[in-house]
Amino acid sequence: MSGPATFFSAIGELSILTARTIREFLRPPWELRLWVAQLDQGGVQSWSITVLTAVFTGMVMASQFAIGLEPFGASLYTGKLVALGIVRELGPVLTALLVGGRVGAGFTAELGSMAVTEQIDAIRALGANPIRKLVVPRVVAMTIALPLLTILADIVGCLGGVLITMVEVGITFRFGMEQMIETVHVHDMLHGVGKSAFFGYFIAIISCWVGMGTRGGTEGVGQATTRTVVWTSITILVSDFFLTRIFLTLYG
Amino acid sequence: MSASSPPPGAPASPTSVVAEPEDVRRRHQGDPGEVIISFRDVHKAFGDKVVYEGLSLDIRRGETLTVIGGSGVGKSVCLKMLIGLLKPDRGEILAFGQDVTQMDEAQLLGVRKRIAMLFQGAALFDSMTVAENIKYPLREHGWGTEVEMDRRVEEVLETVDLPGVQQLKPSELSGGMKKRVGLARTIAVEPEVILYDEPTTGLDPVTIRRINGLILRLQQRLGVTSICVTHDMDTVFTVTDRLAMVYERHIAFTGTPEEAKHSDFRFLREFVKGGMGTLDEDLT
């Protein structure tokens, strides 16, 4: 198939998988044990990379703004810019890219290995539904976990920013925190956290779709994992633009 | 609905959980010789590769049918089409009188409860223990309480000569043990038909004999109908009632192993002899 045909075919298959996932999600009884396991794997186990990424991002932004704003006499606004930048944009996007790489690759590798060893066929043959057992828990987990990780990233990133602003600009910790709190409004949080819920869904649905369609043994699993990382990253960056426009229209 | 399994959602009675072989055998025996599975003019292709053009085959209750043929001719495909894992492009596949090609996933659950499959690599779930693997179909089919399922796990593991391995993970098992655990999982829900996809491939001769013995024992004790895809002539001559050969995208021969040995169909004759190490010189 040509490039555009492949693209539209992928969109179609992802839409069908989404519809089936929603249908299975709405059909009780819910497999809460599987959901919790995926929340642990995709969410809880991702807190360390989230914290590490966020704190350094906040510190780098503060360093740049403190020096960049100095010629204009606007260094005191460093905290405000860092807070808005992290909460509205860098928190959700960087967390999604990092967690997407880690968790998305893991989902694809696991489901891809199951596909090439006929375990997904076995699930169907044993009377179960692979979408219910494999896809729903991952989509639910990531759609819940990524907003929570983003909130964590926002908090830690702002703290990192305040620390560097204290050193570079000479403000107190209390001043820095108050400045950030008065700058960031609820709609700024909703903007960032709202986007991250979509990113979580994209990461899970793409990685599951690629994983379940894996062919060609262990080599195929490796290629599928690479594809997932590339496609989830591109999807996050491209959708970020459109989601930002939508949220700006909604909340300003 | 088969009489061999408890109704969905209903806890099985203790007697059905530890069913005596004779009970199971009696339940599986409808009208001996009755055709219960029928492939009718089935066509299947993967892209440009045509696998079947007019596959027709009947399977009778209680028999063990072995499907042989060269590598890549689509022997496993016919098993997967029978339980709806693959859809044929054309034709009918009747299982217990119903066309599985027209069923959706929900309707196929009923078929998969009665027809179970042992996959080539056993397809055990890596993340689960042996016990959890075997309980998987029991849970899906609403077998009963945890205690009843534990007893059933113990029972089927004893059937495949692997007692006490409940807590092991598949990664801790040898190839032959995996096949036997896979077989235990397959028979756990007391299917009426068992599909074996290359049950002895990649195993050592002693393990092959052990697996063949198990298949034979299940057939004799439980009276199940079996369809076995294999290259292994030991398996063919140990367990088979009737042989079917896939050749040039259709079933080119059906008959007993003895008839196959003396068939006019030279490829079949050599295939069977080749497996026994007696190929004609001009083919070696």
Topology:
The complex is a heterodimer of chains A (252) and B (284).
Chain A lengths: L2 H23 L6 H12 L3 H23 L8 H39 L2 H7 L4 H40 L3 H11 L2 H27 L4 H35 L1
Helix pairs in contact in A: 1-6, 2-6, 3-4, 3-6, 4-6, 4-7, 4-8, 4-9, 6-7, 6-8, 8-9
Chain B lengths: L13 H4 L3 H8 L6 E12 L2 E12 L3 E5 L6 H8 L7 E6 L2 E2 L5 H10 E4 L11 H11 L5 H14 L15 H13 L5 E5 L7 H18 L2 E5 L3 H7 L2 E6 L2 E6 L1 H5 L4 H10 L9
Parallel strand pairs in B: 3-8, 3-9, 6-7, 7-8
Antiparallel strand pairs in B: 1-2, 1-4, 4-5, 9-10
Q: What is the average per-residue confidence, as pLDDT of chain A, rounded to a whole number? A: 93
Mean pLDDT of chain B: 84
Please list the strands of the largest sheet of chain B in the order they lie side by side: 6-7-8-3-9-10
**What integer value in Å does the Rg of chain B equal?**
19 Å
- Straight-line N-to-C gap of chain A: 42 Å
Taken together, the total number of domains of chain A comes to 1
Predict the CATH topology of the domain at 63-84 and 110-283 in chain B: Rossmann fold
Oligomer: heterodimer
Structure write-up:
The complex is a heterodimer of chains A (252) and B (284). Chain A has 252 residues and is mainly alpha-helical. Chain A has one domain. Chain A contains nine helices and no strands. Chain A is elongated. By secondary structure, chain B is α/β, with parallel strands linked by helices. Chain B has a domain at 63-84 and 110-283: Rossmann fold (3-Layer(aba) Sandwich). Chain B contains eleven helices and ten strands. The radius of gyration of chain B is 19 Å and the shape is globular. Mean pLDDT of chain B is 84; it is low at 1-21 and 276-284. At the A-B interface, helix 5 of A face helix 4 and helix 5 of B.
